[in-house]
Amino acid sequence: EVQLVQSGAEVKKPGESLKISCKGSGYSFTTYWIGWVRQMPGKGLEWMGIISPGDSDTRYSPSFEGQVTITADKSISTAYLQWNSLKDSDTAMYYCARPRPGQWLIDYWGQGTLVTVSS
Amino acid sequence: QSALTQAPSASGSPGQSVTISCTGSSSDVGGYNYVSWYQQHPGKAPKLIIYEVTKRPSGVPDRFSGSKSGNTASLTVSGLQAEDEADYSCSSYAGSNNLVFGGGTKLTVL
């Protein structure tokens, strides 16, 4: 069974750093790209970017380029989303997602990680 | 790369049909047949209900249907049921291994 299991909720202060994770199981981790999606409170889904765990080829949505870093460690089948300096506006639910190759649909989602940034 | 445009809300009575639109550009919706629709209930992860404009995954009722004309895709929910009350978001491939989502439409069953 394909599963994407994300790390738990985080509460941070502005300016702090953070790295959240998404562990894939039940499939060949290096075969499928993994993406990240932001959902701010009461708002819609926003595509942040995607990584190929096999070779770490990474593509960012223009809105998120330079704001976050997406990485992956294929040895432990885990993708990461990282911030160097959080802002209040980073408060959101973050989902990892696995698009089906060549069809650009997302049939597997993580359960979401709630990040709260508040002084 | 701008978000796809969806109306913030839609509503219908049980048994009626409702259509939700998703407008993009020739760089996304109009340029590719990789439009998907997702249903999201409060506190839950999104669930795929339509892909490649018109296709339904196994297990999704045929009350849900999709279409596209030019730069606008549409989701129609026929025979509305109470459990259809949820947020609906469209997405489209936008080139260079990137997706773009719509802002979401909250569907209320009256």
Strand count, sense and closure of the main sheet of chain B?
Answer: 6 strands, mixed
The secondary-structure element order of chain B is EEEEEEEEE
Report the end-to-end length of chain B measured between terminal Cα atoms: 35 Å
Beta-strand share of residues of chain A: over 45%
Distance between the termini of chain A: 40 Å
The total count of strands of chain B amounts to 9
Morphology of chain B: globular
Quaternary state reads heterodimer
Low-confidence stretches of chain A: none
Q: Could you report the average pLDDT of chain A, rounded to the nearest whole number?
A: 96
β-strand amount of chain B:
35-45%
- Low-confidence spans of chain B: none
What does this structure look like?
The complex is a heterodimer of chains A (119) and B (110). Chain A is mainly beta and 119 residues long. Helix content of chain A is 0%, strand content 51%. Chain A contains no helices and 11 strands. Chain A has strands at 3-6, 10-12, 18-25, 34-39, 45-52, 57-60, 69-73, 78-83, 92-99, 106-109, 113-117. In chain A, the strands form 2 sheets. In chain A, strands 2, 4, 5, 6, 9, 10 and 11 form a 7-stranded mixed β-sheet that branches. In chain A, strands 1-3-8-7 form a 4-stranded antiparallel β-sheet, with no helix packed on it. In chain A, β5 and β6 form a beta hairpin. The radius of gyration of chain A is 14 Å and the shape is globular. The model of chain A has no long low-confidence stretch (mean pLDDT 96). Chain B is mainly beta. Helices cover 0% and strands 44% of the residues of chain B. Chain B has no helices and 9 strands. Chain B has strands spanning 9-12, 18-23, 35-40, 47-50, 64-69, 72-77, 86-93, 99-101, 105-109. In chain B, strands 1, 3, 4, 7, 8 and 9 form a 6-stranded mixed β-sheet that branches. In chain B, β3 and β4 form a beta hairpin. Chain B is globular, with a radius of gyration of 13 Å. The relative contact order of chain B is 0.34. The model of chain B has no long low-confidence stretch (mean pLDDT 96). Classes of the chains: A mainly beta (119), B mainly beta (110).
